[in-house]
Please model this.
Amino acid sequence: MIADTLVSADNATYKDPRMSKITESGQYLIGVAGDVWACNIINHIWKPPAPTVKDKDLFKFVITKVVPTLRTCLDDNSDKKDYTFSVLISIKGQVFELDEDFATTVHQEGFYAIGSGGDYAMGALFAGADPMKAIEIAGRLDPKTGGDFQEFTQWISQ
Model:
């Protein structure tokens, strides 16, 4: 996963390495975009459940176990009920995209891009750009995408 380090809120932009849009939590890599309050809760408070040996279908696991814990964590840590965010969750190398209504999707092409520059990055990926080039293109075209770029790799033990 690659993310920019520019955060925007209330028509202002902020850049600080402590406001990472990607976090590691147990067996997860989690990438966030959207409302800063939701992203902070997801990255710093939410503890997603660990899949067990019985959880062979990770898509079903995300829908039935991960999503309910995320929804509860957001509800328990904020008075807001109007969510605006997108999340990429990678578990054991499988990526799932969740949006603000907690719909869970997977892309057969394996390309994912969220946030204000996501459409630009997705277009660049489909045009053949590698992920780092795609986010650089998004940063040139979207005023809310920028700063330094952080790259995280999920190592999968067999």
Notes: The mean pLDDT is 91. The first helix runs from residue 36 to 44. The chain has four helices and nine strands. The first strand starts at residue 2 and ends at 4.
